[in-house]
Design a protein that fits this description.
single chain, 211 residues, five-stranded mixed beta sheet, 6 helices, 33% helix, globular
Length: 211
């Protein structure tokens, strides 16, 4: 059984699936500041409500971002801790890719990149770019978009759908594990921030591009 976690935004989600990605159970909620206090209890509740235990988990999948620095760190820490303790494979899945898989009609996925900027992944694009809020609203006007509730309101993305991505994270991980049962390197797997958090001068991981 795959346990999937996505904490890339204030709209968090977790899911359980069979090893081929077939859904078993899921949970989704909004949390701006309490990810560290809520994620593990929610995972345990989802397992218990499904009549399963942590020991039934055969693989862990986690959204890697980009998105919320805090949410990504908390989700990654929990996923890596479980994978290490259980000695199970772990798979990192780009969060915006999972958001689009979960909403096949959406033209783009948007996560917060700053007070007035967003990470944007257009469908079929090579990777996410950074865009200013005003430009986003103009560029995506009238198009179906996946975006966290708080960001959609702040950026005036009318009609945006909230991401409930953990089921898609599980499906993508299942495909990866079918090809390579070892998954990702536990020690090397990290969130993809694209830009350093405030106060840090380190170079961002990956290429940063502007829309």
């Amino acid at each position: 059984m795959i346990l999937a976690i996505d904490g890339a935004s204030t709209d968090l989600s977790i899911a359980l699936s069979t090893e081929d990605g077939t859904p078993i159970a899921e949970d989704a909620w909004t949390s701006a500041q309490r990810q560290s206090a809520e994620l593990l209890p929610r995972v345990l509740a989802l397992l218990g409500g499904s009549g399963r235990t942590v020991g039934d988990v055969t693989a862990v999948a986690v959204g890697t971002g980009p998105g919320s620095f805090t949410g990504l760190r908390v989700a990654m820490a929990l996923a890596k801790g479980l994978a290490l303790a259980l000695r199970r494979p772990i798979v990192g899945v780009p969060s915006l890719v999972a958001w689009l898989e979960q909403e096949p009609d959406a033209a783009a996925a948007v996560a917060r990149a700053g007070a007035r900027e967003g990470y944007v992944l257009l469908r079929d694009a090579d990777g996410p770019v950074i865009a200013e809020a005003d430009r986003l609203a103009t560029r995506l006007a009238g198009r179906p978009v996946v975006a966290p509730t708080e960001l959609a309101a702040a950026f005036e993305l009318s009609g945006a759908r909230s991401p409930v991505a953990a089921p898609a994270v599980a499906r993508i991980a299942a495909r990866r594990l079918a090809a390579d049962p070892t998954g990702d390197d536990l020690q090397k797997l990290e969130p993809v921030y694209l830009r350093a958090p405030r106060g840090l001068a380190a170079a961002p991981e990956g290429e940063v591009r502007w829309l």
